[in-house]
Amino acid sequence: MPDNTRRARDEAFWQTFADRYEAQTGPLNLENGYFGRMSRTVIEDYQRNIELINTSNSVYVRQRFEQHDSLEIRAQLAETIGVRAQSVAFTRNASDALQSLIRNYNRLLPGDQVLISDLEYDTVKGAMRWLSRHRGVDVIEINHTHPASFDSLLDSYREAFIRYPKLKLMALTHVTHRTGLVMPVQAIAELAKQHGVDIILDGAHALGQIEFNLEAMGIAFAGFNLHKWIGAPLTLGFLYIAPQRLADIDPDMGEMHFPATDIRARTPYSTPNIPALMSLPLALEEHRSLGGAAAKSARLNYLRNLWVSAVRHLPGIEVMTPDDPRLYCGITSMRFTRHADQQAMVERLLNEYNLFTVVRNGAASGPSIRITPGLTTTAADMQLLTRALNELR
Fold this sequence. Notes:
This protein is of the alpha/beta class.
C-alpha cells in the first residue's frame, strides 16, 4: 500500500472512494463530525438486514443472533481495536456508554472529588454532576488555557491533582467536540495514575479518525461511537472496560440478564438495533480495507491543513486548534474576531457560499465555528472554504 501521507494527497484515489457513496445534494457538508455516512454497500446490507429481521422476527433473533451471531460481531469489533472480546459491550452510542461507566463506577465515597474540564461533552459533564447529587462527591471543573499546548494541558492536570488531593475520578475527552483539540491522553493518564485518579475516556470522535492503543495509553474505562468515522449505521456504540477493572464498575441498576462477571451486565439490557449490528462487520471490513485510522487520519489532516495553513495568520481569523501534530485531527475550529456573533457567520457561510458548518459553545475560550471535512471532501472544497473565510473576515 502506498505511504498514507502520499495517498492523502491523491485526489484521484479519494474520488474512487467517494464513488462508493451516493452523491450529496444541497450544501457542502463541513460538519461531518456529527455522524458519518454509510457507503452504498453498507446501506444495501443494512436494508437487507432490516428485511430479514422484519420477516424472520424472533425466530432468527432467539435461535441464531443472540446465541451466536452477536458474539461473533462483538469479537470482530474487539479485534479491530486490539482488545479482548470480553472487554467490550455494545451500546446505542458513546453517551450511553459513558453514562453507564460514570453512574456505575463504585470506588467513590462521600467527600471524594471528581474532575471535568470546560472541553468535555455536555452529557459527560451532566453525568459527573449527577454523581455529586447521588454520591455526595464534589465536582471540580478546570478551564484549559487558550491557546493550548502539550505542556499547558499537562500542567492543567498536574496542578489539579496537586490542588485537589481527594480526586478519585476524572472525565477526559480524547478528541474534544468543541474545537477538535486532541488531548495527550497517555501523558495525562500517567500523571493521573501517579495521583491515584481513574480516567473515563470519551472516545466518541477518536475511533476511526486517529490511531490509538487503549492498553498503551493506560486507559481502563472508555466509551465510543461506531457511527462517526467507522461508517456504521446510527445507534451503534460500545463501552470498554479493562478486564482486570471490571469489578470497579457495577452491573447497571442491578442488571441480571448476564452474570456480574460479564461486561454486558454494565449496560441496560434491551432490544438493540439488530439490523445495524448485523451490518457492522461490513463497515469494519471497509474501514480496514481502506487502511484503517492511519489512512483516514492522513487524509483528514491533509484536508484540515489545506485551509488552516491558508487562513491562520490572516487578520480577523483565529484558528482555535494548535498546529502541534500531537494535538490536532481533521476537526478544527475557528472564529471571526471582527464579528461577535459566530452563528451569524455560520449562516453567511451557508447562505453566501453554500458551506454547512456549526457553532460550538461551552469552551472557556468562547464560541467557535467547527469545521470538519469528511472522507468524500476534496481539496477543491477546501479552496472554496478558504476563499469564503478570507472574504468574510
